[in-house]
Amino acid sequence: MTEASPINSLTTLEQAMKTRKSDLTVQQWFHEQAKPYQELMAYYRCAMMEVETKFRVLNEAFSLQYDSNPIETIKTRLKKPENIIDKLLRYNLPVTLESIENYINDVAGVRVICAFPSEIDMLAEALLRQDDVKLVQKKDYIRNPKESGYRSLHLIVAVPIFLHDKKRMMKVEVQFRTLAMDWWASLEHKIRYKKDHPLTEQQNDSLLACSEIAAELDRRMEELNEGISH
Ligand code: 0O2
What is the DSSP secondary structure assignment for residue 155, as one 8-state letter? Predict the structure, then answer.
C-alpha cells in the first residue's frame, strides 16, 4: 500500500483571504473547491473514528482488568472551516490544503474525559504503546497549566486510515481532561466569549482561582479513591 499524494493547493482562497475580500468571495470559493476540501475533511473524520474506537476498546480492556471504566465521556469535533482559515492567517501560512495538513494539527479533535487525573496518564500511555500510533507533539497543561488556569493533556498523534486503494497517515489532537478540568474549561470558555471585550484583571484572577479549586478537588477525589481501592 502506498501513501496518497497531497491534494492540490487552494490558491484562489488564499488570494481571497489575503486581500480580505467579502465573505461572499470566500463562500463562493468554498463552493468551487468543495470537493477536495470535503475529501480532506472526510479523511480527518475517518481518523477521528479510528482514535475514538481505540479509546472505546481501551475502556473495555481496563474495565475487564480493574473492574472500572476509566473513561466518562468521549467527544469528537471537526474544526470549523472559519477557525481553520483564521489559524492559517494568524500563523501567516498560505491558505492551501497542504498547509492545513502540514501545520494545523487540531483539525480532528478527540476529547477524552476521565474521573481521576491518574486515569489520564494511564490512557495516554496505553494509546502511545500501540504500534500504529505515532506521537507528533505533547503539551502537558496539567503539569504546566496555562496562564488562564487551563489544564488538560494534549497529544497530537498520527494514525493510519485505510481507504479502498491507499493508506494515509492523519493527525488527530487528543485532549485528556478530568471532569473537573472539563467543567472549568467549558465555563471559562462561556464566560470569556460571552463578552465583546477582554475580562478585567480581577475576573481573570477569579477564573484562575476557580481552576486551582478544581485542581484541589481532583487531588482530594484521587486520594479518596486511592484510599478506597487499597
Ligand atoms: P477550536 O477550533 O475552537 O476547537 P497550536 O495548535 O499548538 O499551534 P493552539 O491551537 O493555540 O496552538 O494550541 P493549544 O493552546 O495547545 O490548544 C488549543 C485548544 O485547547 C483550544 O481549541 C481549546 O480547546 C483548548 N484551550 C487552550 N487554552 C484554553 C483556555 O485557556 N481555555 C479553554 N477553555 N480552552 C483552552 P481552540 O483554539 O478553541 O479551537
Answer: E
